Amino acid sequence: MSSDGRIFREAWIAGVLKHYPGEPKPGYIAPWEETPDWERECAAAVLGQVREFLRVSGGHASKLSREQKGRFVALCWIAQIHKHIENPKPGYVADWSELPAWQQETDADIFESIERALA
């Protein structure tokens, strides 16, 4: 399991703390060491997908809007949920338009955090 997922997880926690209305669920802000293995694997996989996307775009992914960046993260995450959970709750695989604003903003922050970390 790659420690690359830590970058994703730290960006997730920072985004939740910034955008979540009220007090987030403890699992939302649990540190890497307390994150379940399947979630760590998902985080590492999505970071890898963003990394590869940035690579194959030749640096032009930076021109995407925040929404486009967030949508990419969300879609990659949904695929990982389907990989790791046989019958996920609908909220776990909700389309972008169904996600709460705090989660959309957090997903965009994740993409941008990965961009900065890889720059």
From TrEMBL:
This is Uncharacterized protein. It comes from Kitasatospora phosalacinea.
